[in-house]
Amino acid sequence: MRTAYSVETVRAAERELMARLPEGALMARAAAGLAAVCAELLARGRGRVYGARVVLLVGPGDNGGDALYAGARLARRGAGVTAVPMDPERMHPGGLAALRAAGGRVAASVPGRADLVVDGLLGIGGRGGLRPAAAALVERIPAGAAVVAVDLPSGVDADTGEVAGPAVTADVTVTFGAYKPGLLTDPGASRVGAVRLVDIGLDLDGAAVALEAPQHADVAALLPVPTASSDKYRRGVVGVVAGSEQYPGAAVLAVAGALRGGAGAVRYVGPAADAVLARFPEVLVGRGRVQAWVVGPGLGSGREAEVGRALADTDVPVLVDADGLRGLDAGVVRGRRAATLLTPHAGEAAALLGVARETVEAGRLAAVRELAGRYGAAVLLKGSTTLVAPGGGGAVRVNPTGTPWLATAGSGDVLSGLAGALLAAGLGGVDAGSAAAYLHGLAGRFAAGGAPVVAQEVAAALPRAWRSVRD
Ligand SMILES: NC(=O)C1=CN([C@@H]2O[C@H](COP(=O)(O)OP(=O)(O)OC[C@H]3O[C@@H](n4cnc5c(N)ncnc54)[C@H](O)[C@@H]3O)[C@@H](O)[C@H]2O)[C@@H](O)CC1
Ligand SMILES: Nc1ncnc2c1ncn2[C@@H]1O[C@H](COP(=O)(O)OP(=O)(O)O)[C@@H](O)[C@H]1O
Ligand SMILES: [K+]
């Protein structure tokens, strides 16, 4: 798991460490790590550090201090380093002295050309959108310069990934001590480029994890694999209540996801049985015993009774998606004993929360936490950097795989079938949702390969995703 911690947690760990170290030691570690990454980028881009034009955007706090000390290191290696302050009266004094002593200079405006720009405007102390003085510097970052963000791109909220107004878009973000949630969650995550974590000695063992991103091994450990004693019932039968005369394809795609999700059998309930059987003769049709229900994809309107019937089966895990989410009763969901997993996209989440879609998209972490709290259920919020929040509070999972090519009709139906199969195999709501999002994202990448992809191809690529995770 790649784990991210809140600013409050990081600050507490920093205080504890600083109390045991000589003054300035932590910043020296941070600056050394930052300078090393900058030097590596310059060496890769132009062969050497000597003679490179480096511009430091310097904020009033310690983030600016890191940039100044790193700039001093680069200046000692022969780079021409220019610091441009957000506020000339407020620059880290030690950092400024170090830069000057190394031959660096201070300028009032951003030079028109640079090989490398170091964004040291705001770090974890940044609040709200960039103020005009900071925004004006960001706007003048010269085209063609590599941009390295110090700790996080300025303008991105460290705890939430929210971006209010202008923000830096980095090629590389050098972050200190621990990942912050905003580096892994969109819209912030799209601004960070490659993230390099510099160890400054923080001890976060036992600290509360705010956000975690599963990796191959975490997902491999969750995926059910049949053994000699398995039979189709033990592997899990997933019931799919999906599709309508208007949207028969949703049923086919949800079933495709469920079959590729390792279900022992898939049972289909609804008016699209002919379409489902034509494509998948393996499917059982009609009600019967299942180990999990998937309800909602392509149901259309007026099918609330069928959603209610699945939810009333309180001992069987239920995934509710798409049309099944309309008017979903929080009391009913809260009263269930088995896992419930809700899988809205931003529009559906907005309808459940009674806010605008833009509000959900701008504050994805807050939205998914709020929904999970209200419904007391696991909630998977689809979209770029899909999030999965547990009903009882605690660490949210963020999906690191995926591609914008997945934004295609029906790909969400494949995801719900897949997650339903994992619920039927016995995974909890958060595990089923996050493992499904991971596989679905990989399958999307494999199927797309840089070109448009359709939902059926995502389902067809799931075995390859599964194998790549288990390798
Ligand atoms: N605390 C520590 O032990 C360490 C901190 N380090 C660095 O220190 C940073 C945190 O430093 P600070 O706490 O000084 O905070 P920052 O340097 O992130 O920013 C705080 C300053 O920015 C101003 N500011 C806040 N929001 C603004 C906005 N929207 N527009 C314009 N100005 C704004 C504030 O008035 C304040 O003066 C970390 O991100 C990291 O880069 C590292 O040196 C490692 C060690
Ligand atoms: N910009 C994006 N980047 C990455 N993945 C995305 C993006 N937009 C949508 N997706 C993914 O595509 C799928 C679309 O699902 P959904 O919105 O339910 O579509 P549908 O209802 O047509 O199946 C989800 O898995 C979602 O996470
Ligand atoms: K920064």
UniProtKB/TrEMBL annotation:
Binds 1 potassium ion per subunit. Keywords: ATP-binding, Isomerase, Lyase, Metal-binding, Multifunctional enzyme, NAD, NADP, Nucleotide-binding, Potassium. Residues 10-208 form the YjeF N-terminal domain. Gene3D superfamilies: 3.40.1190.20, YjeF N-terminal domain. It comes from the Bacteria. It catalyses: (6R)-NADPHX = (6S)-NADPHX; (6S)-NADHX + ADP = AMP + phosphate + NADH + H(+); (6S)-NADPHX + ADP = AMP + phosphate + NADPH + H(+); (6R)-NADHX = (6S)-NADHX. Its EC number is 4.2.1.136, 5.1.99.6. K(+) binds at residues 63, 119, 154. Residues 215-469 form the YjeF C-terminal domain. InterPro entries: CARKD, Nnr, Ribokinase-like, YjeF_N_dom, YjeF_N_dom_sf. AMP binds at residues 382-386, 412. Its cofactor is Mg(2+); K(+). Catalyzes the epimerization of the S- and R-forms of NAD(P)HX, a damaged form of NAD(P)H that is a result of enzymatic or heat-dependent hydration. This is a prerequisite for the S-specific NAD(P)H-hydrate dehydratase to allow the repair of both epimers of NAD(P)HX. Catalyzes the dehydration of the S-form of NAD(P)HX at the expense of ADP, which is converted to AMP. Together with NAD(P)HX epimerase, which catalyzes the epimerization of the S- and R-forms, the enzyme allows the repair of both epimers of NAD(P)HX, a damaged form of NAD(P)H that is a result of enzymatic or heat-dependent hydration. In the N-terminal section; belongs to the NnrE/AIBP family. Homotetramer. This is Bifunctional NAD(P)H-hydrate repair enzyme.
